[in-house]
Automatic annotation (TrEMBL), chain A:
InterPro entries: AAA+_ATPase (IPR003593), ABC_transp_ATP-bind (IPR050319), ABC_transporter-like_ATP-bd (IPR003439), ABC_transporter-like_CS (IPR017871), Oligopep_ABC_C (IPR013563), P-loop_NTPase (IPR027417). Residues 5-254 form the ABC transporter domain. Pfam families: ABC_tran, oligo_HPY. The lineage of its organism: Bacteria, Bacillati, Actinomycetota, Actinomycetes, Kitasatosporales. The keyword Cytoplasm does not apply. Belongs to the ABC transporter superfamily. Gene3D superfamilies: P-loop containing nucleotide triphosphate hydrolases (3.40.50.300). The keyword Kinase does not apply. Keywords: ATP-binding, Nucleotide-binding, Transport. One of its GO terms (molecular function) is ATP binding. This is ABC transporter ATP-binding protein. GO terms for biological process: peptide transport; transmembrane transport.
TrEMBL record, chain B:
The keyword Translocase does not apply. This is ABC transporter ATP-binding protein. It comes from Streptomyces coryli. Its main location: membrane. It holds the Pfam family ABC_tran. InterPro entries: AAA+_ATPase, ABC_Ni/Peptide_Import, ABC_transporter-like_ATP-bd, P-loop_NTPase.
Length: 272, 267
């Protein structure tokens, strides 16, 4: 079986002032299997967000290829690429800046539908579009009736649900989740992670889950790729990478995670 | 019997908004002791930041009002202190570090000058003394090459170094209470670890009381002696970290602990 996504020797260089070159992504070779959750883990500046932009073809690679469903994205015409893009969607970290504050929820969620399906365009299609948006909102745990409201009327967690509904609108196969819960409170984060798991099961989705939070990754990912300075230093099943890390950098990351049971090892924190 | 450095008694904080008053803090009490870290835990909107800003009366007035309570520093009520005396308290007795160092540092001032300014303002130090002391303060918080760094601007520093500059600024006046409001939330996990270690080290060395505001129970377990759990403007539970984590009395605390993602599978 062909993997859903294949990255081969993917490299991206940026040129800074004075022509200084920075290699943001450095010869990344990686596959993402249909229906799995692959976590991309790393610290700020490690290149994980640039890598997701390359695989969504929002950036052109300096070298290397991205294949989606076996097709090299580099060889596609604009029209073919549009068709493929319906199958790859993204949910971003900040639910506040990723929505136009002057658009109603209907139009925010419907935007990818209108982009990818002519059947949702125009006044005559409006009832059909509203019905579809209502279904999408219900599927992420919101009331269908909220679609006439504006983003500022929603909390961070609700906005992230709206972002997820929007990503699911064109029935994608793969969804890139770029730190989808980093800006949320821990109880809201737990609800959104549960929702993502449920949607994955129901729709057979593939997730590329970008995160710096290894505890969250342990909960959601089948496999983990650890990035550092643009390169993947370690990749494998979540239990292996987090349970028996091979690379010193992975061990360093793991050691730095604050543990909710750490007080047991400290003197003075227990007892009155 | 230990005496607390800082005591908050039945504090209320309101915000008078056009849509009506918002009761952000509804009668909280807490004690901070020298040499200890007290964690104040809660989710957004729980009132934890509004309570901490109240200690130095940094909430914008209006719309903020303090309809009740006392904030006692060595027996003096900061809530009724005249502004002039309050300015003496800020930086000298009580200092604050915030989440986002980029918005709390002046982008147009060299970082050394920003640390030195505290000394010139609060201690009346001369320009030369203040500069030398600022470099020592940057060195103490583990900034490599402090002479060079003192001459740089905030944008030339990484997030971790900026947070160290903030801590240096807060500590150069040798405060007895340091309030750190989500000091590591914007940082990478390895940098977070360094900053938490630094705070613990400085607390031990100077015998400060540290009040650490956070939503991360992992951070609490790593650094705090006692914890106050806030929800909806009230303290729902407080006690030694071990006690609150091992035998939480309130459902809210249990929910918070259950929602916290863990690296090791829970047995």
């Amino acid at each position: 079986m062909t993997p859903l996504l294949e990255l081969d020797g993917l490299t991206k260089e940026f040129r800074g002032p004075g022509g200084a070159r920075t290699t943001a992504v450095d010869e990344v070779t990686l596959t993402v299997e249909d229906g799995e959750t692959l976590a991309l883990v790393g610290e700020s500046g490690s290149g994980k967000t640039t890598l997701t932009r390359l695989l969504l073809k929002l950036l052109e690679p300096t070298a290397g290829t991205v294949r989606f469903e076996g097709r090299d994205l580099a060889g596609l015409s604009a029209a073919e690429l549009r068709g493929i893009r319906a199958g790859m969607q993204v949910v971003l970290q900040d639910p506040y800046s990723s929505m136009n504050p002057r658009m109603r929820i209907t139009d925010i969620v419907a935007e990818p539908l209108v982009t990818h399906d002519a059947g949702y365009r125009g006044r005559a299609a409006r009832p059909r579009l509203r019905e579809r948006v209502g279904e999408l909102l219900t599927s992420v745990g919101l009331a269908a009736g909220v679609q006439d409201r504006y983003p500022h009327e929603f909390s961070g967690g609700q906005r992230q649900r709206i972002s997820i509904a929007r990503a699911l609108a064109p029935a994608p196969r793969v969804v890139v989740l770029d730190e989808p819960t980093s800006a949320l409170d821990v109880s809201v984060q737990a609800q959104v992670l549960d929702l993502l798991a449920e949607l994955q099961q129901r729709h057979g989705l593939t997730y590329v889950f970008v995160s710096h939070n290894l505890a969250v990754v342990r909960q959601v990912a089948d496999r983990v790729a650890v990035m550092r300075r643009g390169a993947i230093v370690e990749c494998g099943a979540t239990a292996d990478v987090l349970g028996a890390p091979e690379h010193p950098y992975t061990r360093e990351l793991l050691a730095a995670v604050p543990r909710p049971d750490a007080y047991r090892a400290r003197a003075g924190a227990t007892g009155a | 019997m230990k005496t607390p450095v800082l005591e908050i008694r039945d504090l209320h904080v309101d915000f008078e908004l056009s849509a009506g008053p918002v009761h952000a803090v509804r009668g909280i009490s807490l004690l901070a002791y020298a040499g200890e870290t007290l964690a104040v835990v809660g989710e957004s909107g729980s009132g934890k930041s509004a309570s901490m800003l109240a200690v130095l009366r940094l909430n914008p007035e209006p719309p903020c009002t303090y309809p009740g309570g006392e904030i006692l520093l060595d027996g003096r009520d900061l809530l009724v202190l005249p502004e002039k005396q309050l300015r003496e308290v800020r930086g000298n007795d009580v200092a604050m570090v915030f989440q986002d160092p980029m918005t709390s540092l002046d982008p147009l001032q060299k970082v050394g000058n920003q640390v030195a300014e505290v000394l010139r303002r609060h201690r009346g130090a001369s320009r030369g003394e203040a500069r030398a002391e600022a470099v020592r303060a940057l060195d103490e918080v583990g900034i490599p090459d402090p002479e060079l760094r003192a001459r740089q601007y905030p944008h030339e520093l990484s997030g971790g170094l900026r947070q160290r500059v903030m801590i240096a600024t807060a500590l150069v006046g040798r405060p007895r209470v340091l309030i750190a409001d989500e000091p590591t939330t914007a940082l990478d996990v390895t940098v977070q670890r360094q900053i938490l270690d630094l705070l613990a080290d400085l607390r031990a060395r100077h015998g400060m009381a540290v009040v650490l505001v956070t939503h991360d129970l992992g951070v609490v377990a790593e650094t705090a002696d006692r914890v106050v759990v806030m929800n909806d403007g009230r303290v729902v539970e407080h006690g030694p970290v071990g006690q609150v984590f091992d035998t939480p009395r309130e459902q809210y605390t249990r929910d918070l602990l259950a929602a916290t993602p863990r690296l090791e599978p829970t047995p």
